[in-house]
Amino acid sequence: MGLGLGGAEKMSFLSDFLGKCGGYAVIDGGFATELERHGQDLNDPLWSAKSLFSSPHLVRRVHLDYLDAGANIILTASYQATIQGFEAKGFSTEEAEALLRKSVEIACEAREIYRDRCSKDSWDYMENENIASRPVLVAASVGSYGAYLADGSEYSGRYGDSVSLEVLKDFHRRRVQILAESGADLIAFETIPNKVEAQAYAELLDEEGIDIPAWFSFTSKDGVNVVSGDSIEECASIADSCDKVVAVGINCTPPRFILGLIQSIRKVTSKPILVYPNSGETYDGQTKQWLKSEEGADEDFVSYVDKWRDAGASLFGGCCRTTPNTIKGISKTLKT
Ligand SMILES: C[S+](C)CC[C@H](N)C(=O)O
Ligand SMILES: N[C@@H](CCS)C(=O)O
Ligand SMILES: [Zn+2]
User: Fold this and answer.
1) Which GO terms describe its molecular function (predicted)?
2) H-run or E-run covering 305
């Protein structure tokens, strides 16, 4: 166990980090969908977590691509990595736990490689003197119970009455403990679809004495509520009340809904707000395909960042179907 951070120290952890980044931080982009762009077949109940044993070199490569694109925070390949999911594939409990740790090890390794390269190739980077000293955090991704169901349920948030608060806490408990002690800088609870799961995470962080900070990031498909229909204000208030939570926001949501959601979150918290939307396409959980929508391409998405910043967000990145190109665009926009 580390030394542990108290509530006030956790808050200064993120404000110190944002200060070092120049006030605004860049989060990476879509991870699983980027593995797919590199040819991985993720039509599997483990989705991107499959790559932890089938192609760890590609996991490292995608992390490096996002670092090269300007990311200050990289998220591990653990979104759909659950002990229950690995066991269903025939791994032992010990092997499953080792794979969770491995997701953090690969991201830390990519950060080391990136830093070494920056210092060795410093001549190439002279134009941008900040690059070698750019702060980089590794965030351990935790996807929802709906992600584990592997049918796109994180976009409905409806788990049925049998999946109670206690069931959710027990489902996530061991994974959260392992990731908290894996060397990650923070835990990213991502694509949270409903209020009960946010409550489960908040209680787990306290009950288990988790001593690294966390962020809570919700998903919406209407710009008003989270996908289950629960109010975004109520969900963000749960995050606001938990002193282990250092930032609150929205991910894997179409770009056009982000501005209104930032304004709603701002009403209930003064914690930093993070946004990392998807490309605006729609996921079919049965075929695991993305369907085109009217939303524009990367360029349009990046042009929204200024408005999101004016509305009060301070961490920006991309989720499914965004690419290193999106992240390059965001980095550039934030520097101007
Ligand atoms: C955020 S969704 C695109 C993740 C994948 C989903 N849990 C599935 O396995 O189909
Ligand atoms: N960090 C995950 C989130 C999926 S919604 C990914 O980018 O694959
Ligand atoms: Zn996503």
Assistant:
1) S-adenosylmethionine-homocysteine S-methyltransferase activity; zinc ion binding
2) helix 305-310
